[in-house]
Amino acid sequence: MTDVPPPPLPPSVPAVSTTPTGTDTRTLAIVVYGLYLGALFCGGVSGIAGVILAYIKRDEARGTIWESHFENAIRAFWVWFILFVVGIATAWFLVGFVVIGAAFVYFLYRTIKGLIAAVDSKPYV
Asked: What is the pLDDT of residues 25-55, one digit of tens each?
């Protein structure tokens, strides 16, 4: 009698990860910054979507370099929002237009700085 080798085992199915990989989180951070840029130049609705996405993904990014990006996005949105509201409230003094301009520059700076860091896979500092 000859020894017959056993039939090969079927390939195992890899486990599906339920946590996002660094690349996925990086992509989401870039999407948030893209939504923010869209809000500045095409209306504010995408900015609201961006801050909601940042709030949702912030906990998943805890302990990674991407946490700093979501924290930056959330902070930048609320500082911009408060400055914008103050600017609207004081627009009839004409100083409000300066406040609105400062809010725009602040938000644009934080967004572009964060986007550059995210593309380079570095934390927001």
From this structure: 999 999 999 999 999 888 788 999 999 999 9
- Report whether 59 contacts 52 (CB < 8 A): no
- Phi first, then psi, for residue 31 (nearest 5°) are -65, -40
19 touches 60 (CB < 8 A):
yes
Q: 44-76 b/e with 16+ CB inside 10 Å = b?
A: eebbebbbebbeebbeebeeebbbbbbebbbeb
* Chain segment 62-117, per-residue pLDDT in tens: 999 999 999 999 999 999 999 999 999 999 888 999 999 999 999 999 999 999 99
Least Cα distance to 69 among 106, 109, 118, 112 occurs for 118
Alpha helices in 9-94 (DSSP H): 22-42, 45-58, 66-89
